[in-house]
Each structure stands twice: as C-alpha cells, then as structure tokens.
Write a structure and sequence with these properties.
alpha/beta, 45% helix, globular, 5-stranded parallel sheet, binds adenosine-5'-diphosphate, 5 strands
Length: 212
C-alpha cells in the first residue's frame, strides 16, 4: 500500500494536562522509547508561517492564552498529519501517534474520534497552580515562548484547561485512562506511569504488526 493511500485510523495515545504539567516531556520519552511519533498541536501551530491566515489566527488566540476555534484546529491538525504521512515522516502502519494538546474541547474529541484508534489517555494531574507557573517561567527562559512569559496569559491558559479541556476526559472510557500525579520529578512521574499503565503501554515497546 502506498503512503498516500492510508485510509485507516491512527493508533494513538492522548496526553492531557494543564500547561506546565509535562505533556511534552512525557510524550517525547514515550515516542523515543519505540520510535513512535510525537505530535504537539502547540508546535504545529507555532510552525505555521506568521503571515498565513491560519498563522495570523493562531497569534490572535494563542497570544491571549485562548484556544484556536475547533474547525480551524482540526483542519490544520488533519492537514499536518496527512502531510507527515505523504512525506514518510510518520508511518501509521508501524508507529503509534503520541498526541499532545489535542483534543481540548468536547467537539474536537468527537471529530478526532473519526481519525484515531484510541490506545490510552494519559492525564497528568497537577492542581498546584503556583508550581505550574514556576515551571512555565523556567521554560520561558529556555524556549522564549511569548505565552509562557506573561502572568496574565499563563493564568488564562490554566483557566481554559480547567473550564474547557478537563471535562473532555469524561468522553473517554475509564479502562483506557491513566491518571498520574505530575507534581513530582520527571523520573518519578515516568515510574508511576509505567507502574500504573504497564499493560496498556507495553504495546509501545515493539513495532506494530505489519498488515499482510
Ligand atoms: N487542540 C487545540 N485547540 C485549540 N487551540 C490549541 C490546541 N492546541 C494548541 N492550541 C493553541 O496553541 C497554544 C499553545 O499550545 P501548547 O503549546 O500545547 O500549550 P500549553 O503549554 O498551554 O499546553 C494554546 O494556548 C492554543 O492557543
């Protein structure tokens, strides 16, 4: 089957958590543990040309800590994944897709279900806003992200997570849900994740069975 003809669903793990909870760190480690593909929706938006219409739309929402509207989000995301497949960078027959930052609304979850075959949902839990903010401010120094610098924008992103995204967890079956305390050192978070979720996550340790 040619790369462009993939019409199946992407076998996916979803990462949830407030800004600063460590979605990116955990996703990268899971992806690298078995050559799987980590896709951060925030990174997808940040890679858009600033003068494109989607890029301008992203700035107008992202700079305020708000979510980009659902329709555009899904369009940009689905187009990006298609491009990854057609250029051979993401190989859906062999790799799991580690999705960080999507879905963030119920409506995104509903549309996304047409694209993915869900393996697991990892919810990184960290209610301590002060410590999340400290993590983001450290990241701002390293990565220079505008939305990590402004305290008002950080606060807005936390609120958006609490009000719009957290409830999306209820959309997914409990037997696929791994809730992990993210208010710990990264190694401990990973230890807990593999301790709780070994049976679900063990699929990442070997390549997918090839279709015959
Ligand atoms: N699924 C999504 N739906 C709408 N907007 C999104 C989505 N993912 C990312 N964004 C936009 O990109 C910004 C940065 O996302 P991300 O890097 O994942 O941030 P965070 O560290 O807050 O989790 C968000 O504040 C939002 O404007």
């Amino acid at each position: 089957m040619g790369l462009k003809e993939f019409t199946g669903r992407y076998k996916s793990l979803l990462l949830f958590g407030p800004p600063g909870a460590g979605k990116g760190t955990v996703s990268k480690i899971l992806a690298e543990s078995g050559s799987h593909f980590h896709l951060s929706t925030g990174d997808v938006f940040r890679s858009l040309p600033k003068d494109s219409s989607a890029g301008r739309l992203f700035s107008s929402y992202g700079d305020k800590g708000l979510l980009v509207p659902d329709k555009v989000t899904i369009e940009v995301w689905a187009g990006y994944v298609k491009d990854l497949i057609s250029t051979g960078r993401y190989r859906p027959h062999e790799q799991y897709l580690i999705l960080d930052g999507i879905p963030r609304t119920r409506s995104q979850a509903e549309v996304l279900s047409n694209y993915i075959d869900l393996v697991a949902v990892i919810a990184l839990e960290m209610p301590n806003v002060q410590r999340l903010t400290e993590r983001l401010q450290r990241r701002a120094q390293i990565e220079g992200r505008n939305d990590d610098i402004d305290a008002g924008v950080i606060e807005k992103r936390m609120e958006v997570y609490r009000k719009q995204t957290e409830e999306v967890l209820g959309y997914y079956p409990k037997n696929k849900m791994l809730r992990i305390n993210a208010d710990q050192y990264p190694l401990k978070v990973l230890g807990d994740l593999f301790g709780t979720g070994w049976e679900v996550l063990t699929c990442l340790s070997h390549p997918m069975i090839q279709p015959t």
